[in-house]
Amino acid sequence: MGYERVRDIAPGEALLIDFKGNLRSEILVKDAMLSPCIFEYIYLARPDSVMNGISVYEFQLKLGDALARRIVNERNWDIDAVVPVPDAARPIAIQVANHSGIPYREGLIKNRYVGRTFIMPTQRERERSVRRKLNPMPVVFQGKSVLLVDDSVIRGSTMKQVISMCRAAGARKVYLAIGAPPVKYPNMYGIDIPSDKNLIANGLTEDEICAELGADGLMYNTIEDMVQAGHDCWRPELCGELRPGETEHQRNVAFEMSCFDGKYCSGLSTDIDHARGAKLTRAKSVDVLGREIVEIKREHKTGRDSLPFALSTKGIVTVEGLPWPLVARGKVRDIFDLGDALLMVASDRVSAFDVVMGEGVPGKGALLTQISLAWFERAAAITPHHLVPNHAQRIAELAQTYPELEHRSMIVKKLTPLKIEAVVRGYLSGSGWKSYKATGKLFEYDLPEGLLESAKLPRPFFTPSTKADVGIHDEAISCADASALIGKDLFDKIQDLSIQLYEMAAECASNVGVLLADTKFEFGVDADGNLYLIDEILTPDSSRYWPAADYSPGGAQNSFDKQFLRNYLETLDWGKVSPAPPLPAYVLEGTLVRYIDAYNTLIAPWATRSN
Question: Whole-model pTM above 0.85?
Answer without folding.
Answer: no
